[in-house]
Design the sequence.
């Protein structure tokens, strides 16, 4: 009787250990929830800002666009996962998405580093125009669903 209890206990622990050891693969969001523009501005408001504030807005918009534009065929808003779109949540697809996210992160970091060095030499008027242009692109992305 004691052998049966011991053997049953060992089997229970092996099964429990195996089930807890398996990796949980929850679907990853295609567009990060941290990506977005806090506020849209008009031309007059931007013209009243100091150059440093404009530089920050410009860089923020570059970051948002770099993280959204490659995915507009799938999603335009954060929170959409591969599973939501019917894409299998396979190891290969997750790895491809992870690689893409890593590449995008590296690109954005390098671009921001470059912009912080070079962008201060730009004309304030051109910065205002660029921020407005990027905001128009973002507004167009929000209305993308109208084209479907």
Sequence:
């Amino acid at each position: 009787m004691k052998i049966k209890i011991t053997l049953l206990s060992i089997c229970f622990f092996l099964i429990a250990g195996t089930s807890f050891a398996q990796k949980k693969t929850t679907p990853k969001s295609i567009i990060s929830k941290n990506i977005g523009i806090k506020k849209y501005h008009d031309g007059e408001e931007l013209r009243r800002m100091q150059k440093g504030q404009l530089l920050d807005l410009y860089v923020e918009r570059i970051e948002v666009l770099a993280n959204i534009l490659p995915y507009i065929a799938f999603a335009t808003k954060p929170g959409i996962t591969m599973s939501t779109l019917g894409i299998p949540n396979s190891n290969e697809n997750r790895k491809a998405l992870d690689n893409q996210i890593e590449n995008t992160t590296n690109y954005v970091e390098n671009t921001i580093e470059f912009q912080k060095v070079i962008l201060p030499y730009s004309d304030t008027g051109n910065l205002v125009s660029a921020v407005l242009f990027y905001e128009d692109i973002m507004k167009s992305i929000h209305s993308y669903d109208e084209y479907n």
Q: What stands out?
A: The chain has a mean pLDDT of 85. The radius of gyration is 24 Å. DSSP finds five helices and no strands in the chain.
